[in-house]
Amino acid sequence: MKRSEINTALRSAEAMLAHHLWALPDWAGWDMADVLRHRDHSRWLAERQLGWDVTDFGSGEFAARGLTLFCVRNGLAHLSGEERPYAEKLLFVGVGQETPFHAHKHKLEDIIVRGGGTLCVAFTPEGYLGTGAPPQQIRIDGAAHPAFDRIHRLRAGQSITIPRGVQHRFWGEEAPVFVAEVSQCNDDQGDNFFLGGQGRFSEVEEDEPPYRLLWNEVPQ
Predict the structure, then answer these.
(1) Ramachandran angles phi, psi of 215, nearest 5°
(2) Which of 159, 166, 197, 201 is deepest in the core (most CB within 10 A)?
(3) Other Cβ atoms within 10 Å of 33 Cβ, number
């Protein structure tokens, strides 16, 4: 993925935040000089995977298969007694931009549409990571719905609970979608299992300087 694509995605996400009057912590706007000046703070954030994240899942086609995220808060799963056991993310989903089928062994999450267009979510029983049969129902704002063989379309204000271990994908319709995620402690390096074998992170081609560092690029 080209750095210029990442920079464009980050600026687009910041524009969506401004449109929805949603503010981020000061460190969301740090450049490399700020990161180096606040080295201990930056290292603490990066250890918890906090900050910006842009990926095309190795597709080479970010507009069709990709995602921009900002992790606002998170703990360390292996230090659950001493750390926050929860996470909060913001997701910026383009029209027709798919996050492909993936599941989490450990993380239970709610996906909440904060504004913009419609978020489409689909599930498949294939590749279930749990024991026994996959659950046949999901809940949207607490109401039970059949999980499979349909597309669940969520408008602003609606939320869906993603069952642990169930493969799911999502994309936007009508307009870019501003999405939030609240979950158990998040580990994007060890708790993403893609049905199609995709990678979680992209290799970056440096065709221009970075606008913002991604969390996994912060020097340790």
Answers:
(1) -60, -35
(2) 166
(3) 8
